[in-house]
Design a protein that fits this description.
single chain, 288 residues, alpha/beta, three-stranded parallel sheet
C-alpha cells in the first residue's frame, strides 16, 4: 500500500487565523488517521509580501495547535534553482514564451477580447521584432505556458482524456473522477518577473519532490487543480488525489481571510482561548 502523505503549505504574508487552523487540522488529522506523513511547507516565493516574522509565527501557531511535522521544513525561496531547472526544461521543449505585457495590458486585453476571458488569458507570443526590442531595452518579462504548444506536445487523445480524483467536493458539486479542463487558466504564468517562479509551478514541483500523494486544501483552490494537473502531465510527475474542504466562515458569513484582517490565532491565544477549545470548536477532538 502506498504511503499516505499530505501537506499544509502556508505563505508567510500574515498571521494565521481560524480558517488556516481548520485547513491545517483537516490535513493533519487525515495523515494521522492514515498512519501517513504530514508535511509543512513554507511557500515564500513572493519577495514583496513574505516576511520572516510571519514564518516564525506560523511555526509557533501550529505548534500551539498540537501539530507535528517533518523536518527540515522546505522553504521555497531557497530552492529557486530547482524551479529554474524546470523552466529551462520547458523552454527547451518549446512550451513557454516570453510575455513582456504588464498586468494592466493583460487586463485591457481581457476587456477587449470578443470571446471573453478564455481567449484573453492567452495573449500569445510577441512578434520577433517586438521581443528583440524588449530584450535589448531590458524590459522585464514573465514566462507563460503556451496552451497551443502543450496541446501539440501531449497529443489530442491525452489533451482531452486526463482527469483528477476528487475525494471531497468542488464548489459546483464536482466529486470522484473529474475531467481536466487544461485550458481553464489560459496561458498561465509559470515564472514571474519578480520571483523567477510562479505558484502553480512551485507547488506542483514540490508536491512531486516531497512525495505528496494527497492534496488537502480549501475549495477556493479547486479550479487551480486543472492547470496543476496539466503541469504534472507535461512534466511526468505523479497525480495526487485531491480533497477540497469547505471554507470556514465567520459570524458575518464571510470566509476568513488575511486581507480582511480576520482575528488571528495569536490574538485568540492572547485572549485566553486554549488550543483544545479551538480544536473542539473546529470539530476536532483531542485525538485527531
Amino acid at each position: 500500500m502506498a504511503m499516505f502523505a499530505t501537506r499544509f503549505a502556508p505563505s508567510p504574508t500574515g498571521r494565521l487565523h481560524k480558517g488556516h487552523a481548520f485547513s491545517a487540522l483537516t490535513a493533519w488529522s487525515a495523515a494521522k488517521a492514515a498512519g501517513g506523513r504530514f508535511v509543512l511547507r513554507i511557500e515564500d516565493i513572493d519577495p514583496t509580501r513574505c516576511r520572516p516574522e510571519f514564518e516564525t509565527a506560523i511555526l509557533e501557531d501550529l505548534a500551539w495547535l498540537g501539530l507535528e511535522w517533518e523536518t527540515p521544513v522546505r522553504r521555497q525561496s531557497i530552492h529557486l534553482a530547482d524551479y529554474a531547472a524546470v523552466i529551462d526544461a520547458l523552454q527547451d521543449r518549446g512550451l513557454l514564451y516570453r510575455c513582456f505585457r504588464t498586468r494592466t495590458e493583460v487586463l485591457t486585453g481581457i476587456g477587449d477580447a470578443p470571446h471573453g476571458k478564455m481567449e484573453a488569458a492567452r495573449p500569445g507570443p510577441h512578434t520577433p521584432d517586438e521581443e528583440a526590442h524588449f530584450l535589448e531595452t531590458g524590459r522585464p518579462f514573465a514566462w507563460r505556458l503556451s496552451l497551443d504548444r502543450a496541446r501539440e506536445a501531449l497529443g489530442e487523445a491525452a489533451w482531452t482524456g486526463f482527469h483528477f480524483i476528487e475525494e471531497g467536493q468542488g464548489p459546483n458539486g464536482e466529486s470522484g473522477v473529474v475531467p481536466v479542463r487544461p485550458d481553464a487558466a489560459g496561458d498561465v504564468v509559470l515564472a514571474r518577473k519578480d520571483a523567477g517562479v510562479a505558484y502553480h509551478l512551485a507547488v506542483t514541483h514540490d508536491d512531486a519532490l516531497q512525495g505528496v500523494d494527497h492534496v488537502i486544501r480549501g475549495e477556493d483552490l479547486f479550479e487551480a487543480t486543472h492547470v496543476q494537473r496539466l503541469i504534472q502531465t507535461l512534466m511526468g510527475w505523479p497525480a495526487p488525489v485531491y480533497r477540497h474542504h469547505r471554507l470556514l466562515t465567520g459570524p458575518d458569513g464571510r470566509r476568513y481571510a488575511k486581507r480582511d484582517r480576520s482575528v488571528t490565532l495569536a490574538e485568540l491565544r492572547a485572549g485566553g482561548l486554549t488550543a483544545e477549545a479551538l480544536r473542539a470548536e473546529l470539530g476536532f477532538s483531542r485525538d485527531d
